[in-house]
Design goal:
19% strand; 235 residues; alpha/beta; seven-stranded mixed sheet
Length: 235
């Protein structure tokens, strides 16, 4: 049975890395003494070792050890034996490119569908949807495909921001970008605001956190859903 935490962000204002999620992660990874961290998205261009150290420090507070996938020779074997997996945020184009390059997209998909608990934040959440096309990131590299893990039957837009009526910025809003996406695609999109996440237990997909999420469906006006909303029948 699938068990996922699909979070908009790793860090909310005024708290440390993953701090706001630690009570949830304690339960989510309760049967894990060690998890595998996928650092390929490399936020701000930091090294895989530096990024893994950040994750390791956070999980140490709940007595879980972390090892970076890059530390091993056989990525598929490591994933197949992982007690749990965490994919961190950064650049989604880079992350997806690396997952395909190292031929771990399908192994990662299979182990999580089989029940290995998974945490994704930001780019690590983007890849849980059907495609990565609703990322906010710059295309710094070109992945061989925009198709991703498909754990959920829609796409994610993490770090979703509402239009600021007081702003003098006249560029495109997140809502505008998603509407542009729907000119060429029919996949639904869920905009996750900071501090929100989706909890996936088997076929049940629930919005968690304190904030509403904004939902975009093809040829429909966008609408809001409240925490504890069930996306299980969303297609």
């Amino acid at each position: 049975m699938k068990k996922l935490i699909i979070a908009s962000t790793s860090t909310i204002h005024g708290s440390g890395y993953l701090e706001y999620l630690l009570p949830t992660l304690t339960v989510h990874f309760k049967n894990c003494s060690e998890i595998i961290f996928i650092p390929f998205a490399r936020p701000s261009g930091i090294t895989h070792d530096e990024y893994t150290a950040i994750a390791k420090k956070a999980f140490a507070t709940i007595n879980i050890n972390v090892k970076g996938l890059h530390e091993f020779d056989d990525y598929t074997e490591v994933l197949n034996n992982a007690q749990g997996v965490f994919t961190g945020g950064g650049n989604t184009f880079l992350l997806v490119s690396q997952l395909y390059k190292h031929k771990v997209m399908n192994p990662l998909k299979e182990i999580v569908i089989s029940g290995t608990p998974y945490l994704g934040t930001s780019a690590g959440s983007n890849i849980c949807g059907l495609t990565m096309n609703t990322t906010n990131d710059m295309p710094i590299v070109y992945p061989p495909s925009f198709s991703t893990l498909g754990y959920i039957p829609f796409n994610i837009n993490p770090h979703y921001l509402d239009p600021d009526p007081t702003s003098t910025h006249k560029g495109e809003t997140r809502e505008t970008r998603i509407k542009e996406f729907h000119k060429f695609n029919t996949v639904p999109v869920v905009g996750l605001r900071e501090g929100s996440w989706l909890q996936v237990d088997g076929n049940t997909i629930t919005l968690e956190g304190k904030l509403d999420a904004r939902v975009f469906e093809y040829s429909k006006p966008p609408y809001e859903v409240k925490p504890k909303h069930d996306f299980s029948n969303f297609n």
